[in-house]
Amino acid sequence: MKVKVSVLGSTGYTGVELVRILKSHPKVDIIFLTSQSYVGKPFSEVYPHFYGLLDHICEEEKTEEIVEKSDCIFTALPHGHAMNIAKEAFEKDKVIIDLGADFRIKDPQIYEEWYKIEHTAKELLPYAVYGLPEVYRDKIKKSKIIANPGCYPTSIVLALYPLLKENLIEEENIIIDSKSGVSGAGRSLSLNTHFCEVNENIKAYNILNHRHVPEIEQELSNIAKKEIKISFTPHLIPINRGILSTIYGKLKKKASYEEILEIYKSFYKNERFIRILPKEILPNTKNVLGTNFCDIGFAIDKRTDRIIIVSVIDNLIKGASGQAVQNMNIIFGFEEDEGLKNVSFYP
User: I need a surface site. Which of 99, 145, 198, 316 has the fewest CB within 10 A?
Assistant: First the structure.
C-alpha cells in the first residue's frame, strides 16, 4: 500500500524539489499540491520540466480535506503558516513534516523573539521532534510532528556532533562561516537576489541576527548538555544551490588527524548519507549537487590546536526536501534512502 502525501506550498523551491523526489518515490501517491500564487494552474505550467510527467492542478489550501485524505502532509510554507495545519493533523493522527521553522525552536519565547510573530501552537511543541535523522532517528520513528531542520543548521550540527558528543572541542570558542547559493533565499522576488546584485559578488548578510542562530545553539547545546553560544556569519554566493560551512574550534586536548578521523567514521559508519572524506579530498558543493549527502572533511592546525571542519550539502535536498523525505521514510518504515538514491551529476 502506498502512502498518500500532500505538499502545501508546492511551487516554491523546496516545494518543487519535494514534488520531484516524491514523484519518483515508488511507495508514494501525491494527492494534493497547493499554491497561493498559482491556484487553478497545472503544476507543469508553473514548472514545465514536469510536462507530461505530472498532471496535478495547483489547489487552494483546503486544510480539512487535505488532512482527511492524506497520510503525510509536507508544509513548505513561510514561518507561521504550519501551526493551524499541524493542529488539525495532530487531532486526526496524521503525520506532518514541516519544512519551515514553526516547530524547530522548543522555547516559544525564543521563537517569537527571532521570528517576530506569536506562536499559536505552543501545546504541540512537546510532541514535535527535530528531524535530523543521524541524531534523533529513534524519536523520529515514533513522532507525528517533524520539525525539518534548517539548511545551515543541518550542515553545522552534523559536522560538530561527534566532537561535541566526545567532549573534544571547547564549547565557547566555535566560529562558523557558511556560504549558501541563491536558492536558499526562496523564489519570491527580492532586490538582494536579482541577477545583477548576486552575479560576480559575494556578501555577508544578517550578521548577528540570522534566524538559524537559536536553532543551531539549541541543537549544539542539547548534544553537549551545556549552553553553547556560537559566532555565525552567513554569506550569499553566486551559485544556484549548495551550502559550504567552515567551522573553527579549539581542541580540548591534542589529537592526531587519524584519531579524529576514527571518531567521525565510528559515529557515522552506518549513515548512508554522511560521507567522511579522506585527507586528500576536501568537501565541495559540486559533489553533493542534487543529492541527500552531507560530505565532511577536516584539518588540524597543530600550531594553534584548532580543528577546521568543512561540511557541504545541497541546501534544497539534505538541507530541506531530501531530509523531509528521509524523515517520512523512517516514520513509515521504508528503506531510508528510498527515492534518494541518486548520485550527483557532474560537471
Answer: 198
d(CA 312, CA 287): 9
* Contact yes or no for 76/9 (Cβ under 8 A): yes
CA distance 184 to 236: 9
pLDDT tens, N- to C-terminus, the chain (347 residues): 899 999 999 999 999 999 999 999 999 999 999 999 999 999 999 999 999 999 999 999 999 999 999 999 999 999 999 999 999 999 999 999 999 999 999 999 999 999 999 999 999 999 999 999 999 999 999 999 999 999 999 999 999 999 999 999 999 989 999 999 999 999 887 888 999 999 999 999 999 999 999 999 999 999 999 999 999 999 999 999 999 999 999 999 999 999 999 999 999 999 999 999 999 999 999 999 999 999 999 999 999 989 999 999 999 999 999 999 999 999 999 999 999 999 998 88
For residues 93 and 64, what is the distance between their CA atoms, to the nearest angstrom? 13
Report which of 273, 265, 239, 41 is spatially closest to residue 154, judged by C-alpha positions.
273
Query: What dihedral angle (degrees, nearest 10) is formed by the CA atoms of 322, 326, 331, 336?
Result: 150
Cell of 330: 523512517
CA distance 61 to 306: 50
pTM above the 0.85 mark? yes
Q: Contact, 345 vs 290, CB < 8 A?
A: yes
Spatial CA neighbour of 129 closest among 339, 338, 324: 324
CA distances from 345 to 17, 107, 288 (A): 16, 40, 9
Beta-sheet pairing, 231-236 with 203-204: antiparallel
Cis? peptide before 234, omega within 30° of 0: no
Q: Where are the beta strands (DSSP E) in the chain?
A: 3-8, 28-34, 72-75, 95-98, 128-130, 145-147, 175-180, 203-204, 231-236, 243-250, 274-276, 294-301, 306-313
72 counts as catalytic: no
